[in-house]
Amino acid sequence: MNTIFQDEFERTEFTDEIHGILGRILILSTRYDNHCKTFGRIFKYKEQILLSSLLPSVEREVVYEKVSSDFRNLNRAIQSLPIYKTEDISHILDKARISRNDLIHTVSLGLEGLLELTEKQQLDDILKNIETLLRDLIKGDVIISACLSAHNRDPILKSFFEKSYEDKIVNWVMKRFET
Questions:
Q1: pLDDT in tens, the chain (179 residues)
Q2: Residue 78 to residue 36: CA distance in whole angstroms
Q3: Backbone phi, psi, residue 112, to 5°
Q4: Does the model's pTM come out above 0.90?
Q5: By CB neighbour count within 10 A (0-12 exposed, 13-18 middle, 19+ buried), where does 10 fall?
Q6: Distance CA 25, CA 100 (A)
Q7: Helix (H) or strand (E) segment spanning residue 170
Q8: 12 with 114: CB under 8 angstroms?
């Protein structure tokens, strides 16, 4: 039997719940990634618009493409942010980035098969690790979302910074419907 190829295609309610958790994690991770890159681009685009008004349109397009390509990497996008200069905030944003990378690239390794065969303690440890990483991601996303909201002059409710908001997101991602 070849163990490299995916050969377990049975779906159960239990595995669909775990895979649903991974899907919701992907949604939040992508959101954080996109918000960081968008926030980083805002300042560069404004700067480039001012400078490029002196350039011919062909050269302007090159400048805009460069700005877009500069922010394809999440780490560079985060480090370019004006708020990154604050040590406490940079620590939260970096921790969220590392958690996002773990959630997307590492957490799901080995979870493609029939999870009913996984020992309960092992699965509990995986879910506990996911929740820890998720909470770090949420803290970073709250900061970036608040910055984008402030930039757009949208209201920012105090409740977004409370643990209850974090708990709502964690419950949305992690809550399973086992009987």
A1: 566 777 777 778 878 888 899 999 999 999 999 999 999 888 777 777 776 677 777 777 777 777 777 778 899 999 989 899 999 999 999 999 999 999 999 988 877 666 666 678 888 888 999 999 999 999 999 999 999 999 999 999 899 999 999 999 999 999 866 54
A2: 6
A3: -90, -10
A4: no
A5: exposed
A6: 9
A7: helix 163-174
A8: yes
Beta strands in 78-178 (DSSP E): none
Structure tokens at 176: 């399973």
Residue type, 103: L
What SS3 state is found at 159?
helix
For residue 131, CA distances in Å to 53, 88, 93, 113, 161 come to 47, 22, 17, 21, 18
**Cβ pair 78, 36 in contact under 8 A:** yes
